[in-house]
Amino acid sequence: MTPVSWRKSSYSNGGGGCIEVADGYTDVVPVRDSKDPQGSSLLFPADAWRSFVTAVQAGEFGSV
Q1: What is the CA radius of gyration of the chain?
Q2: How far apart are CA 58 and CA 46, in angstroms?
């Protein structure tokens, strides 16, 4: 089994409210809390994740 490669979100600022996503899957995107790397991850369908990322980049959820 190939080890999973996790990466933090580009918005990560060291404040502890970050997520990580795993690369290398075609149909799903695993997402986990960066503060709890041994904890559970959520699996999102890849198409849904791409739509979410596109909406965030377009500012559809407002700004922080």
Answers
A1: 12
A2: 18
